[in-house]
Amino acid sequence: MPARLPRTHPDADATREAVRAVEAVYRELEGRPATRNCTLQTGCCHFRLTGRIPYLTRGEALVAARALRAAGRRELPVRDDGACPLLHPETGRCRIYEGRPFGCRTHFCEAAGGPVARASVIDLIRRLETLDARLGGDGSRTLPVAVADALTRLPPPGCRPRSRPPAHPRSQPTGST
């Protein structure tokens, strides 16, 4: 019986590149000083109480979906209390803290010190918007909608990118006939 080849997915390369681009934006944001006070103050994460919800670009949603899948989830948890579906109900911790969206990183609500001034991060927002357009997105969407959609767009676990042709063709040995 022939060995099974690993599954490939046409979007695996694009997804990987998008995730890297979003993670670069997140790293740059971390390097910018901002006074924050978010030490398990989950008030921001209770959307029904705050009346506010983060909006994610397609690239951010892919990062969040990959982090959720890495946490052992295949779908977005359901929360009936109006809290963020990524907030663990027992621990009060974000299930995807390292992959949390830009809005969560810039504390869109008052409980953690209020939002970061938009003018100080507009360049990063523009990069996320440009990436969204490149990925075929149509603008930011609410966290639950964006992440649920991204989970359907992610290549299945264990799926590898389609192989690309080599950048430089190998020289073929010449033989005598």
Q: What does the model show?
A:
The chain has one domain. The chain contains 6 helices and 4 strands, in the order βααβαααβαβ. The strands form 2 sheets. The protein has a two-stranded parallel ribbon with strand order 1-4. A two-stranded antiparallel sheet has the order 2-3. Helix 1 (12-30) crosses helix 3 and helix 1 runs antiparallel to helix 5 (118-134). Helix content is 38%, strand content 5%. The two termini are 36 Å apart. By secondary structure, the protein is mainly alpha-helical. The chain has helices at residues 12-30, 47-50, 58-70, 102-105, 118-134, 143-153; strands at 8-9, 55-56, 141-142, 160-161.
First-residue to last-residue Cα separation: 36 Å
Percent of residues in β-strands = under 5%
Category from helices, strands and their pairing = mainly alpha
Low-confidence stretches: 1-9, 165-177
Count of DSSP H/I helices: 6
**pLDDT averaged residue by residue:** 80
Helix percentage range:
25-40%
Per-chain topology:
Elements: E1 8-9, H1 12-30, H2 47-50, E2 55-56, H3 58-70, H4 102-105, H5 118-134, E3 141-142, H6 143-153, E4 160-161
Parallel strand pairs: 1-4
Antiparallel strand pairs: 2-3
Helix pairs in contact: 1-3, 1-5, 3-6
Briefly, what is this?
38% of the residues lie in helices and 5% in strands.
Please supply descriptive tags for the structure shown above.
disordered C terminus; two-stranded parallel ribbon; disordered N terminus; 177 residues; mainly alpha
